[in-house]
Design the sequence.
């Protein structure tokens, strides 16, 4: 009886020894690696497993071999060309990362991974893995205004109001211009111009000044040729005063007197000096207004009231020069403001500040053994 019991115990012990030392293949890998590349493999192991790893580099000096128990516990990391029967004791069921990193040159690798189960219960353990989503919840406090009603607020509003307005005239031009004739024997330049520079609008303190309008008059007042004398009836009686030009500007007069007679004078209103230079040189130029005859006039109200203007004159009569009188005035409005305080009321919302808590949920994915959670 004792001998029979001995044989039974010996058989059980021998079977256990034989079972516990029998490796189960997890992976047999052969792969090529190009220069400066990395290969990664993931497998799960059960608690109590003995992991057995073999590696052989067919060609080359070596590669970096690393085995990591996820998430970040390194079990082995070395530069080698061969690993034989390297064993790692698995203390808990986890996913393991097997990383092979190549440096320079192409490599041919052979990789074998086995496991020795701790017991019969883990013999059929699934070495695959799956993704598991982890959620992390945090709480953040913040302050927020909350409407609790409305209230009436009294306040003082300062308003800028017009205290006074005043119109004044500014004489821009009041001079005489000689316009030569081209001549037949001696060629002079039959061109001339009158420059009109408007005052700049200004603002300072409670005072504002602006040009609200301007007007010009220009006309032939004398002639230096007997032939032109007969064609042109011009005299001092045809020259309007500055006061008459002002009345025309503000609308009290609908027109101004101009000399009668010759149409040999051409008038051009020009905006910039570049075109004046072209005109004086006989080149093409741009102009705003154009007129022919012994005189011309125009006015501008609330437009073209800033900058510099030029009246260009061309004497097309070849036998005599003419004398031209030019006049221009501007009306400047001076506005004086005053600050007036008014008592006002308004309804405004009323808030209180509350402390609130915001829940923040973030997620991440991790590799876990295939059998986890079953």
Sequence:
């Amino acid at each position: 009886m004792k001998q029979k019991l001995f044989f039974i115990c010996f058989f059980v012990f021998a079977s256990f020894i034989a079972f516990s030392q029998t490796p189960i293949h997890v992976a047999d890998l052969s792969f090529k690696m190009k220069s400066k590349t990395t290969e990664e493999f993931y497998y799960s192991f059960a608690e109590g497993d003995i992991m057995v790893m073999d590696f052989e580099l067919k060609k080359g000096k070596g590669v970096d071999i690393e085995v990591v128990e996820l998430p970040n516990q390194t079990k082995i990391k070395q530069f080698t060309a061969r690993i034989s029967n390297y064993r790692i004791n698995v203390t808990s069921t986890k996913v393991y990362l097997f990383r092979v990193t190549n440096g320079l040159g192409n490599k041919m690798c052979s990789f074998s991974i086995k496991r020795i189960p701790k017991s019969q219960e883990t013999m059929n353990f699934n070495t695959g893995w799956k993704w598991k989503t982890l959620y992390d919840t945090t709480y953040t406090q913040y302050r927020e205004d909350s409407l609790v009603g409305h209230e009436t607020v009294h306040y003082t509003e300062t308003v800028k109001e017009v205290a006074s307005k005043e119109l004044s005239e500014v004489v821009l031009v009041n001079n005489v211009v000689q316009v030569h004739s081209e001549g037949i024997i001696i060629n002079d330049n039959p061109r001339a111009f009158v420059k009109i520079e408007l005052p700049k609008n200004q603002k300072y303190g409670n005072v504002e000044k602006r040009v609200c309008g301007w007007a010009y008059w220009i006309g032939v007042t004398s002639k230096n040729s007997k032939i032109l004398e007969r064609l042109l009836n011009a005299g001092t009686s045809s020259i309007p005063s500055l006061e008459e030009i002002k009345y025309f500007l503000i609308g009290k007069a609908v027109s101004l007197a101009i000399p009668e007679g010759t149409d040999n004078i051409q008038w051009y209103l020009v905006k910039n000096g570049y075109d004046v230079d072209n005109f004086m040189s006989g080149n093409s130029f741009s102009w705003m207004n154009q007129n022919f005859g012994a005189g011309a006039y125009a006015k501008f109200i609330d437009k073209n009231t800033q900058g510099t203007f030029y009246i260009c004159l061309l004497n097309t009569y070849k036998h005599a020069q003419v004398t031209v009188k030019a006049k221009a005035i501007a009306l400047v409005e001076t506005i004086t403001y005053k600050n007036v305080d008014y008592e006002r009321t308004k309804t405004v919302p009323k808030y209180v500040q509350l402390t609130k808590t915001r829940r923040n949920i973030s997620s991440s994915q991790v590799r876990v053994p295939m059998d986890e959670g079953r």
Observations:
- The helical segments are 2-20, 226-231, 242-250, 273-281.
